[in-house]
Design brief:
The structure is a single chain. The chain is of the alpha/beta class. Helix content is 15%, strand content 16%. It contains twelve helices and 27 strands. The strands form eight sheets. A seven-stranded mixed sheet has the order 15-12-16-26-27-24-23, covered by helices on one side. A hairpin with a 7-residue loop joins strand 6 and strand 7 (120-126). It binds a DNA duplex through loops.
Amino acid sequence: MSSFEGQMVEYPAISIDRFDRQNLMARAYFLSHCHKDHMKGLRAPSLKRRLECSLKVHLYCSPVTKELLLTSPKYSFWEKRIIALEIETPTQISLIDEASGEKEEVVVTLLPAGHCPGSVMFLFQGNNGTVLYTGDFRLAKGEVARMELLHSGSRVKDIQSVYLDTTFCDPKYYQIPSRMECLNGILELVRSWITLSPYHVVWLNCKAAYGYEYLFTNLSEEFGTQVHVNKLDMFKNMPDILHHITMDRHTQIHACRHPRAEEFFRWNRLPCGIVSKNGTPLQVISIKPSTMWFGERSRKTNVIVSLKPLCRSFSKSTETKYKPLGMLKRARTTYLESEDEDEDLFDDSQLLPLRHKIPNQQSLQPLLPPPKPELQECPGKPKLSIASCRTDNVQTSLLTNFIDCEESNSEDEEQSETSISFHGDSNSTPLQQEELYVDTPEWKIFFKNNADIPDDGSENLISSTEAGGSQSPRLFSDSDGDSTHISSQNSSQSTHISEQESQGWDSQSDTVLLSSQERNCGDFIFLNKSGSQIRGLATACQLEQNISGPKDTSADLKDRAQDVNTASVSGGATTVSCEKCANEEEKNLLNLSTSVDSQSSSDFEIPSTPDAELPKQEHLQLLYAKLATGESIVIERKHSTSSS
DNA sequence: GCGATCAGGT
DNA sequence: CACACCTGATCGC
């Protein structure tokens, strides 16, 4: 849950992602994306009443967010009061106090956040300075550098405060694989499974409402198999997503939900309840996208810090255009519900990001180019200050360069994995097991392949809180080595497999972890401790995959001999843990002594990044101390040495 | 009955 | 415990 209270010190008349308490008096509301924890109070009776009395109050968000929000009848009362702002189109908004008539102008620019469909960051420019509210985001390496509206000339604008989520600004998350790595790993895992037979199915255990679309579309595209979901009306006007999902349960890839989905899975059943017609039991594995997974393992942390100027690099080409998912079907620049339902929805042209389109909303004044006053570039050295979110807090300004992490993909592979699978029917005694060198997914293989990602191809995450992935760039790589990044990045490449066994029908379990291998990060600044005010940029998604064995009723979660594969993909990086079901009995019989739980099982050594330098404890403490006191922190261009 | 909060879960 | 939810119990209106 975001700890941001909704208001920024510079523009307290605006409330973002919080709609309760003091936010009830805001002159304007902003919603960065449609995740519940950013919508607190949004449908409360108190706010609804406020709206009824204050006709000038509006909610600003991206067109896709508006679409998603209004799909739910619970928010339909907002319909006339939501103003969708085009991405990357500076727009002037008047903040009017209806009581006094006082008016304040602010220019807002929505920047794609890559967290989930419609997610954006808000860049505000006004008399109280330029501030950036990131919301949850996940950006690939180089994307920030390509955001023209964040720059003035070759430099990042003089942003005095950045409101960000620092959930993943923690050493324990130093190696979240890139979206592409995760995706590749998952693709191979899924391929290895669903090609075994029509009865081998995959269940994507998705927790959040949105953010997995990128994964769905890629799976669908790769295998020509639409993903089964419970509902898809929210995507009715987003052909690039709609085309890849279905409500038809007859598919081998599922992302359907059920309150007791996990129980179903333990029984080797899918949440939608579908079973094969001829009685052949389904073989279900689950893939759980999760970023947190990467921080759960108590592994040594390795954070690399390096400083880079905040200059854009023009030298490298930026051919890879940001390609958010969820492009709305609409006529011209106006956002409309649906118009041509079935035409050529997949024309490439529709997938291109809309840039600089002018919203034709009343009372809004898109500015092209943006107003000058606060758009000056920072003279001299680039700097970025980060302010805390609380209104009562003093902002902390960091006259530093960005936190820039780069990664380099090297390939070391790790050794082998051993996967042993046992086969047998559920009732068979252990002694009857036979080894199957089956086709159970072996992580190592999947993720290893990814190691081929070109150096530049790495996507790095900037942040974001979760697994959303849809907006992120497709599988492109960015190239630049010296682009500007706001946060840390990660990539991963090799796969590790811990051996385990599991079983079930034919189960086996193996744990594989996708670990990131190398990355070079630039100086990594931890902003978090200074209070949760600075919530920030880091997101990754994790995907867990469970290979469940068929049926056993007595299966106890803890006793499952599961294995886990971790791979990351989707909205963020995703870990995949594979588990297989095994009941206690089976487990004992199989003498699965080595397996513990998915967590531990996958807790193998993660190679540290070559050239990585760990911040020294003292160094970090110093930074924390400065952050806590609001003192400026200037990071010098030198690397800290590693240790720890 | 609804909302908010808390506890618990994945 | 972050994530992003979900369920259920309790309390207040």
